[in-house]
Amino acid sequence: MTSFHTQTATQTLELLHTELNGLSAAEVVNRQNLYGANELVQKKPKPAWLMFLLQFKDFMIIILMVAAIISGMVGEMTDAIIILIIVLLNAVIGFIQEYRAEKAIDALKKMSITTAKIKRGGAVLSLSSVELVPGDVVLLEAGNAIPADLRLLEAYNLRIDESALTGESVPVDKITDTLKTADIPLGDRFNLAYKGTLLTNGRGVGVVTATGMQTELGRIAQLLQGDEADTPLKKRMTVFGKNLTYIILFICVIIFVAGWLRGEDALKMLLISISLAVAAIPEALPALMTIALARGANRMAKKNALVRKLPSVETLGSVSYICSDKTGTLTQNKMKVVNTLSSSPALESTGLSPMLLTMALNHDVQAKAENDVQGDSTEVAIVEAAIQELGFEAFQNLEQRYPRVAELPFDSDRKCMTTVHQFGTQFLVLNKGATESLLPALNSAADQKKLEELSEEWAKQGQRVLAFAYKVIPELPQPFSYETVETEVHFAGVVGIIDPPREEVKVAIVECKAAGINPVMITGDHPSTAAAIAGEIGILQAGDQTLTGVTLAQLSEEAFLDQVENTTVYARVSPDQKLRIVKALQSKGHYTAMTGDGVNDAPSLKAANIGIAMGINGTDVSKEAAHMILLDDNFATIVKAVKEGRRIYDNIRKFIKYIMTCNSAELWTIFLAPLIGLPMPLLPIHILWINLVTDGLPGLALAGEKAEADIMKRKPRGINESIFADGLGYHIIWVGLLMAGVTLGVQAWSIKTGSTHWQTMVFTVLSLSQLGHALAVRGERSFLYQQGLFSNWPLLSAVFFTFLLQLAVVYVPFLNKIFRTQPLSWQELGICVGLAAVVFHAVELEKWVKLVWRKKAATAQL
Ligand code: ADP
Ligand code: MG
């Protein structure tokens, strides 16, 4: 391994057989074949066969199989075989679920890939960083994630956050000088940049020395690849599931002992209790949850919200504040200059006003043709206006006539920028920026007053106002900084730019407010501009407050906490103040989403409960810090994601409700039968069958349930709210009891009337009640007739299919033998279906009662 930090830039290029202009196309193909893709290879996935075998590692399953084999040897061989087959089928379903969960997560991982700007054969290309090879020349700018290991060839104010690699949180200043000692820590190799670290400042060029697993990050990648973090809910459910397992085992032991003491056959009782334990322990829940979350995340991605971590999918529904940037997120980012005022006459030799000169020269856009101007949208608007005034050719000539020799780049803290141009033997200093930023630098009080009045007037109309200033100086000041350069300048003029709000945002804001979510605008713009636009889109309403960065800086923490919930617009704030806003909202108990795009936004994105980066205009650094990325930079997409988050959480509740109620019904039935003097209602195979067909298909289909009509009309769910809140726990117990009640009722009645197929009746009633229940739990607050029977096809098909299977078990002679069932008469089948309908209607009635309660509570509150 070459120590590139001890080589000069030229030596490095030679060693890598490349040049400043980059590799040739042919060479790139060669190297891609040689080195492969520039990506970190994930830990080898579990092979499918192992995943399948692991389905049997469950302790209870093993016991069940052993018990089945023993009972087979001493008694009924068919029973034993059926039990083994059912266990096998269970494993198949478990395997499919887990496999799908894994695939869904893989698909998610593939989506967030960064791009890099590189030079090949002299041309600059923007490529997926996966395509890089050693020898590629990479152009770096502030906000980039470093795509591979690099030896730096150029570095201007280059600062890199290497915490991902070294743990050091202070960004490191980078240089291009050659270092002497080979054997120094990574963090001290100041002329190298490492894959996965983040460029926070400056600009540079580097040549790729290593890609993929050969990079420093790749070498420790094995260490980093811990298991996917579980979501909070999954963690809680795992703990809960463990406790539940003990309870269920305890109940099963009681059932076994009680049956044995009553004189039942011990082996038979053992098999019953173990089957019951296997059926009642909800082992499918974690996999189902992963599927629901991962699929939900995939759906969100299709709606342009890319969620980087699964826990965010689950918690999105709790968001109660969305703090959003204005430009580009709430507005269209299609800026257009609508007002200009030039305040000084043409500048001597140029024949042009200083205003026009500044518009044409003070920017970082790339103007390739009259209608092909790329860059920051504010600057694009200004340059387009300048081109229109000058003509494209004259515009281009200006850049050659007055070449740029120095600059103080735009920065959202200072809110202005300065460029310096060769002006004969002198220098022309051009400034543009926010009114307040330029105001103190102006050399005339009259101009200051004029600028202030004008900006206020235009800002009130919702325009973004930028002021221009200039001066001609004989030589560049030393040191060159804004304190020495941005002083005593002449007022050149002002422009007013409009950026119309996005149409869909107005609707989204109404939706937010109905859903108990407070939208807040945070912008670097002038307070009047911000207020005008916030008013137009409905963020700022009567009684709401606007705060500026200056006022915010003066507010004490307590005073701010008093106001934070009423403030819907923050103007002229700097990125570090966004962090303060997030923290204040959080300390008021709000689950806060916050958008951001720049390097400076990373801390507030990390601190927010849901940090949201912009996919189009966002830097890699902000994306890296974010929980979610908006592929279309659109506020309305956040609201869609929240809605999706709520739906997913609802659905998780639905299948938990469904599966656990089934299990509770099975437990109650077996537990209560002897207490009321009835014989054992079911055989082990019946219990396992119900567990197999009911838990499996309808449960999965519930995960795909559509959002209920009121989903965005409820308040956000409290972040610490239990999954069993709002009566879910009671539901599991009482509906389970109800199902057991009708089942045992049927048992008692048919035994009394001397029916020989009482057990088939019991089996069928219990099985069909589950199906009735599946249809009813589709809606938590809406009735099935409102949702429509056909609005969840997979579920309807699952219910229908399961019904057919049950009929088969009851009517196919071969299956009669296996399941010890007898064909039911039409009347008997009718009774079974009728009782399942009773369960269905009871659950619908529960919703109705809750609805009335909720209405009462709501009116009581008024
Ligand atoms: P926003 O929160 O709307 O994205 P910015 O931080 O981009 O706000 O801009 C804040 C202010 O800085 C603007 O109102 C404008 O006055 C000024 N500004 C924006 N872009 C530039 C630029 N390229 N050059 C100079 N000043 C700018
Ligand atoms: Mg901006």
Automatic annotation (TrEMBL):
A UniProt-annotated Pfam family: Hydrolase_3
Transmembrane region(s): 49-74, 80-101, 244-263, 269-294, 655-676, 682-703, 723-746, 789-812
One GO BP: export from cell
GO molecular-function terms, A-Z: ATP binding; ATP hydrolysis activity; ATPase-coupled monoatomic cation transmembrane transporter activity; metal ion binding; metal ion transmembrane transporter activity; P-type ion transporter activity
UniProt main location, coarse: membrane
GO CC annotation terms, alphabetical: plasma membrane
SMART domains: Cation_ATPase_N
Domain of life: Bacteria
Residue ranges the record marks as coiled coil: none
InterPro entries assigned: ATPase_P-typ_cation-transptr_C, ATPase_P-typ_cation-transptr_N, ATPase_P-typ_cyto_dom_N, ATPase_P-typ_P_site, ATPase_P-typ_TM_dom_sf, ATPase_P-typ_transduc_dom_A_sf, ATPase_P-type_domA, HAD-like_sf
Localization: Cell membrane
Membrane protein topology class: Multi-pass membrane protein
Boundaries of every Cation-transporting P-type ATPase N-terminal domain copy: 3-76
UniProt keyword annotations, A-Z: ATP-binding, Cell membrane, Membrane, Metal-binding, Nucleotide-binding, Translocase, Transmembrane, Transmembrane helix
PANTHER family registered for this protein in UniProt: CALCIUM-TRANSPORTING ATPASE
Classification via NCBIfam families: ATPase_P-type
Family: Belongs to the cation transport ATPase (P-type) (TC 3.A.3) family. Type IIA subfamily.
Protein name: ATPase, P-type (Transporting), HAD superfamily, subfamily IC
Origin species: Haliscomenobacter hydrossis (strain ATCC 27775 / DSM 1100 / LMG 10767 / O)
Species classification: Bacteria, Pseudomonadati, Bacteroidota, Saprospiria, Saprospirales
